[in-house]
Amino acid sequence: MENYISKKELLVETGISYGQLYRWKRKGLIPESWFVRRSTFTGQETFFPREAILERVRWIQGAKTEAALDELAESIKSSSLWQERLPADVLWRAAGLPNPGSAASVTRREFFGQWTAHHLPGRERPSIGVEALAGFLSQLPSDWLEYPAVHLYGVPGAQRWTFFVVQSPESVCLGGDEPALSVALGSLWQEAKGIWDKARMTVAAEVKGVRNT
Amino acid sequence: MTEEALRSVKVSGSGTVAGGRYDRVKGSGSVRIDGDVVAHSIETSGSMKGHGNLRVEWLRSSGSAAVEGDVSTVRGHASGSWRVSGNVRIDEEAKISGSAHVDGSLAGEAVVGSGSLRVRGDIALESLVWSGAINCPGLVSADTVDIRLGGACQLGELAGSSISVRAGMNASPWLAWLNFSRTQRLTVGEISGDDIRLEHTEARVVRGDRVSIGSHCRVDRVEYRKDFTVHSDAWVGESVRVEGNGQ
């Protein structure tokens, strides 16, 4: 539960008002899924994933222009699937793997990037930066990952790798040699999705068990 | 029909409008709309039944309207009875009088109305001014909420900057004699806002910067940051001043 912060704690910590919080929610700057309602001794209480909400509020407070906020709202809307965040320890425990990073919580896209990187063919793995691959995957429209045959290719360059993703391997015609990296993302994603859902259930059970004092 | 020169349709008596793009759709009597419609305006009087989504800049209806789908409009004026099975989006302002029932969510800028408003999903607006009965089991969030109670109202959660819930006016001494005020009641789980003024409200928790609990209120717990007042005939279980750095 230390990964979650209650609404009133959030207001005290950041100095924002209820009005601002709900204004940002309506604007789409704070994803709907971050508002977690749970029973406490005073009745229902709203909790947020601590690290994610604090980072987001600071970002919004630091944003210089309205246009920057609109841009953020747009990117959240188009990739809300990717923005969901879970505690890293719960997630990697569910995956049965050691936590590869140091952050307390992980977004869905970060997890998918790390998961994919972890399952790359062994000999290629060291030369591909996890961040680079996760960054690349974060650019993908999230609905692409619903395609079962979605496929990732990678070609090593002098400085860095070039990645490309296709909705199905049949849709491309590759001349010459096979790319150095060729991974079926669909099945990997299905597996990652299962782990994500399992971790989410664990978190929900943890939150439910908490009685705020 | 081309997009360059959108045509208008007019139905009087009884008729069906096919889905598509129109300049203006005007109907009186019994109008049926089959399919999604994108139009500059839809104006109907009498009965309108829509089977599909409606996206318009100006929507006006009097009488009864039922839409199986989503409704999105820039401005609107509805009197009579409205029922929408999907979501409703108001880009600027909608004026409603009568009864409106939305199975999905109601979102957008401003809604001003009187009568009965029932929304199954959430209400998320910049301004909600309503006089009458309002029921929404989800979250009602708006920058400005001004509710003038007329009947039994029930909300899951109410949140915003400025929240005002007032008892409606008793139209006559007869109604006062019948203790009409007892039926003017808002029941809500939690209210959170910056400035909150309540009357005839029953809530589990009220959280705000400045909280005023007026007559006929019953609140289990009040958490305030700056200011708190309570009317002599209101009941508040406990009130707590919460530390915070304010604005």
Strand order of the largest sheet of chain A: 1-3-2
Query: What is the C-alpha radius of gyration of chain A, as a whole number of Å?
Result: 19 Å
What is the chain-wise order of helices and strands of chain A? EHHEEHHHEHEHHEEEH
Tell me the count of domains of chain B: 1
Largest sheet of chain A: 3 strands, antiparallel
SSE string of chain B = EEEEEEEHEEEE
Oligomeric form of this entry?
heterodimer
Indicate the mean pLDDT of chain B.
90
Number of helical segments with 4 or more residues of chain A: 9
Average pLDDT metric of chain A: 77
Give a quick rundown of the structure.
The complex is a heterodimer of chains A (213) and B (247). Chain A is an alpha+beta fold and 213 residues long.
Features:
heterodimer; A: 213 residues; alpha+beta; Multidrug-efflux Transporter Regulator, Chain: A, Domain 2; 2 domains; three-stranded antiparallel beta sheet; 9 helices; 8 strands; globular; B: 247 residues; mainly beta; eleven-stranded parallel beta sheet; 11 strands; elongated
General description of the model:
The complex is a heterodimer of chains A (213) and B (247). In chain A, the strands form 3 sheets. In chain A, strands 1-3-2 form a 3-stranded antiparallel sheet. In chain A, strands 7-6-8 form a 3-stranded antiparallel sheet. Chain A has 2 domains: 75 residues, Multidrug-efflux Transporter Regulator, Chain: A, Domain 2 (Orthogonal Bundle); 113 residues, no CATH class. Chain A is globular. Chain A is an alpha+beta fold and 213 residues long. In chain A, α6 packs across α9 and α7 crosses α8. Chain B has 247 residues and is an all-beta fold. Chain B has one domain. Chain B has 1 helix and 11 strands, in the order βββββββαββββ. Chain B has an 11-stranded parallel sheet with strand order 1-2-3-4-5-6-7-8-9-10-11, with no helix packed on it. In chain B, β7, α1 and β8 form a beta-alpha-beta unit. The longest helix of chain B is centred in the last third of the chain and has 5 residues. Chain B is elongated and about 60 Å long. The interface between A and B is medium-sized, with 17 and 30 residues.
